Amino acid sequence: MSVVPTVRGPVDSSRLGRVLMHEHVFVLSEELRCNYPRRWDEEERVADAVAKLRALKSRGIDTIVDPTVLGLGRFLPRVARVNEQVDLHIVPATGYYTYTELPFFFQYNGPGRLVDGAEPLLEMFRTDLEEGIGGTGIRAGLLKCAIDQPGLTPDVERVLKAVAATHRSTGAPVTVHTSAANRSGLVAQRLLAEEGVDLTKVVIGHAGDSTDLDYLTTLADAGSLLGMDRFGLDDALPFEQRVETVVALVARGYTDHLVLSHDAACHLDWVPEDRIQATNPRWVFTHISDDVLPALRARGITEEQIDTMLIHNPRRYFER
User: Fold this and answer.
1) Cβ 117 vs Cβ 109: under 8 Å
2) CATH superfamily of 3-318
3) InterPro entries, alphabetically (predicted)?
4) pTM of the prediction?
5) Does position 39 have pLDDT exceeding 90, yes or no?
């Protein structure tokens, strides 16, 4: 057993219950929100988030992992305010989310930069994990990085290496946003392994966007968990194909490598909410409980296998 940091305080890993391993409370362009407040109604958004997370809890989900980090508008005081009203564990993350370049601060500060010195990402990540995020005292429970269609750009590599170094020194587990289209999970996995990361403590995020079983089993054979974590995002991969991929992996003996989620958010300001609902009406927190699990059961997936994906695999990931 291990203690897992959550927004409401530390929780024993044995008490996480059923876990969705990749969900967001808020994904915001925080600088725009601060400077153009007419675009945002704080009370409305908090109430909406509370309602959506209560609906999720009513389906028997006990914990969500929220990999909202720098680059995605992380603001823990708002999440904490929501969590005060919902009996749900929320595990926050540290890291940096970029597909290409880091902001100017990092261009000028760090090893070999204009202001030569220690890598600032390392101090930031360690502080979030060991002391708390943004003066809240809420500690991060995992590390997050990303590699997408642009591939391993210099700054993406810099973030991955900083995540790896922090993992080595703290033991914190890692989740990586990847692109199934260009199989970037393999690139991330190779670099992290070279940097000394325990791949059994790595979730290859958005692996479930792929139906390529050779790609998926290669990732799993190296030790990592596969994030079957975009259920509801049907325009990226239809529902039936996502379900059948999980069924096929279970049939091949990979149940111990699968975690489930939606990658949904209470509010995402990248595109209008009505457009999200028009293109992906099932991209909501309750989709797995209401639609995916019944579909898996109908295809022969057992309750024991579902518990492995929702309870035992997440617990093992967080135990050190």
Assistant:
1) yes
2) Metal-dependent hydrolases (3.20.20.140)
3) Metal_Hydrolase, Phosphotriesterase
4) 0.97
5) no
